[in-house]
Structure formats: C-alpha cells, structure tokens
C-alpha cells in the first residue's frame, strides 16, 4: 500500500454474527481532502468509520491509517485523529463548556490555549449562548454540534465526522460545511458520512455506499458523468416548435438523448458529451432551420438526489443482469 495516502483499505470486510456489515471495502484517501461517504441508513457508513478508527478490526483484508493498522496506533497517532461519533457520548451532567474543557484537558491543552480554542469552537457551532447549559438539556441538534466541537478541540490532522449535520437546520449545516472546507484548506483531511445526498457536492471525493458495499468512488463531477453519461444542457424553445427542434437535436452525432420537461412546455434536456463544445454546434444547427429559435440555453447540474437515484437504478439493473446470466449458465 502507498505511504502517501492518509487512509488506504484493500478488500476489508467486517462481519457480525456471520453477516457482513462491510464487505470488499477498497478505498484510498490522500491528505488534504474531504472524503464524503453517502448512502441511506444501514448502508455501512458508520461501520466503515469504526474500522478506520480502530474501534473494530477487519475480519479480512487490510486497513491502514497513517501507514499502519489502526490496532497498532500509538498514543501520538491517536492524538492526530478527531472523531465525532453518530451518537451523543459526552457527559449529560456537565455543561457545554465543561464538556469541551474536559475533552481538551485529555489532550494536555494548557489553560490559555484551551480558553481561546473553546471560545472559537463555540462560536463556530453556535453554542456560545448555551455554554452553561447541561448536556442533558440540549436538543439533539445541539448535542451534535457539541460533539463536533469536542472532536475538533485539539486541532487534529485527520477528522472523522459521522453524520455531523443530522438534525441540524439547513443554515447551520451550510456554515459547518464552510468550516470543513476551511479545515481542508489548512491541509487537514476529513472523512464525513451523511444521509443528505446533496452534501456530496461539498466533498472533493465521494464514496457511494449501499448494503455494506462501496459501489463508487469518484469526484462529484465524476459521479454526474457516470450517472448521465456526459453533460446535460437545458434548452428553452417555443412550445409550438418543440417537435422539430427535438428532431434536429436527435440527428446531431454528439447528442445521446433528448428529454422533454412535461411540467414546463418548451423545455428540453439535451444529453451530450461536453456541454462547452456542444452548445455552439447546437446553435449553429438550429440557425440553419428557419423559424427555429432558442430562447435560453445553459448547462444543467442535476441535484445529487437525482444522481444518486440514477446510480442506484443502474446498480440494480446490473445485478439483475448478472443474476440472469448466472441462472442461464
């Protein structure tokens, strides 16, 4: 395995009672990126994080973090890691500030350094006004924010955040992702799991998980390309002209498909290899046909919810095809 990767796994598997919680986990995370794991509840995201942090050992395969198996971590190596678990594990009878100070003290942070660091983190997670409130008195979203602050208090090099934005309102969710990007820009590496598929757009590399398997690992743009087979253009024309425009577009060699938007007359989605190269050629082709006019045209970026659904549909179709081939054999 490469010593340049912060995290590297090869065919890692973890079984519980004979059933696989994670299987054939193969991934590589270079330093200084946000690696997002997306997928529905029960997909295996939390189990994968527990393998990477050393909470569980793999039943088979290899897992290396900082070049060594997590089971071989030294105390110094563990200090380089911040971990925000999915469930609230802090002290309910301590205040927000007391919890944060306690975790900071575990890493040997001095009083003055700790004071400034806790003040800044409470501002980031917007818990300054709640700093004297007991952990048991916090809402679920506030507990998530406190857990994140505790994971970051010692300025770790590698940060695991398991569902950090669950139960948090969209405005604060956006602010947390801004902070994650700031941490990445400082050279830190983040592994973030989320059920909010749209948050894949905030990551540098995305792993799509389902039923314990890592199906795809790619950039957000790469996942779009996989799902759509290229780029998508959104073209608005006169509804009365939509049929002849559609025919012109389908006859162009670089257009793979054209879909009508049923809820908005005259709107077409045009599937091409490269939007930048296709758009001027589309205008040129339509200009050769008198009476055909494009009212608006732009590259379309489908939401990641749609991308995820398309990828899952293709995976289901591939599995069905494999099953038919196996039965035929």
Which sequence of SSEs, written as H and E, runs from N to C? EEEHEHEHHHEHEEEHEHEEHEH
Count of distinct structural domains: 2
Widest sheet: strand ordering: 5-6-7-3-8-9
How many H/I helices?
10
Uncertain regions spanning at least 5 consecutive residues? none
What Rg, in angstroms, do the CA atoms define?
24 Å
CATH topology of the largest domain: Rossmann fold
The number of E-state strands comes to: 13
Structure, explained:
A hairpin with a 2-residue loop joins strand 8 and strand 9. The protein is globular. It contains ten helices and 13 strands. It is of the alpha/beta class and 329 residues long. A six-stranded mixed beta sheet has the order 5-6-7-3-8-9, sandwiched between helices. The protein has a four-stranded antiparallel beta sheet with strand order 11-12-10-13. A three-stranded antiparallel beta sheet has the order 2-1-4, with helices on one face. The two termini are 37 Å apart. The chain has two domains: 7-225, 3-Layer(aba) Sandwich (Rossmann fold), CATH 3.40.50.300; 228-300, Alpha-Beta Plaits (2-Layer Sandwich), CATH 3.30.70. The chain has helices at 45-53, 75-79, 96-106, 111-124, 140-152, 170-185, 220-228, 242-250, 275-287, 304-328, and strands at residues 7-16, 19-29, 34-38, 60-65, 81-84, 158-162, 189-194, 205-210, 213-218, 231-237, 255-260, 267-272, 294-300.
């Amino acid at each position: 395995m490469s010593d340049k990767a912060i995290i590297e796994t090869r065919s890692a598997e973890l079984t519980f009672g004979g059933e696989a919680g994670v299987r054939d986990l193969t991934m590589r995370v270079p330093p200084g990126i946000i690696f997002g794991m997306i997928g529905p509840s029960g997909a295996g995201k939390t189990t994968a994080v527990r393998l990477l942090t050393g909470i569980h050992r793999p039943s088979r395969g290899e897992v290396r973090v900082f070049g060594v198996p997590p089971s071989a971590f030294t105390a110094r190596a563990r200090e380089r890691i911040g971990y925000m678990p999915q469930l609230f594990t802090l002290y309910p009878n301590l205040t927000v500030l007391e919890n944060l100070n306690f975790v900071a003290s575990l890493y040997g942070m001095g009083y003055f350094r700790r004071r400034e660091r806790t003040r800044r983190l409470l501002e980031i997670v917007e818990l300054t006004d709640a700093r004297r409130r007991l952990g048991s008195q916090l809402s679920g979203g506030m507990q998530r924010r406190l857990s994140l602050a505790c994971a970051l208090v010692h300025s770790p090099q590698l940060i695991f955040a398991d569902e950090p934005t669950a139960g948090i309102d969209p405005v604060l969710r956006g602010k947390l992702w801004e902070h994650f990007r700031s941490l990445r820009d400082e050279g830190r590496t983040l592994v973030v799991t989320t059920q909010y598929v749209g948050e894949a757009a905030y990551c540098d590399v995305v792993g799509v998980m389902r039923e314990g398997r890592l199906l795809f690992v790619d950039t957000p743009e790469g996942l779009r390309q996989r799902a759509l087979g290229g780029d998508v253009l959104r073209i608005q024309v006169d509804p009365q002209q939509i049929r002849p425009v559609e025919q012109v577009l389908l006859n162009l060699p670089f257009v793979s498909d054209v879909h009508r938007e049923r809820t908005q007359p005259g709107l077409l989605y045009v599937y091409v290899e490269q939007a930048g190269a296709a758009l001027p050629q589309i205008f040129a082709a339509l200009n050769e046909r008198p009476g055909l006019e494009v009212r608006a045209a732009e590259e379309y970026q489908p939401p990641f919810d749609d991308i995820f659904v398309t990828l899952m549909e293709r995976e289901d179709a591939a599995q069905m095809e494999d099953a038919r081939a196996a039965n035929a054999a």
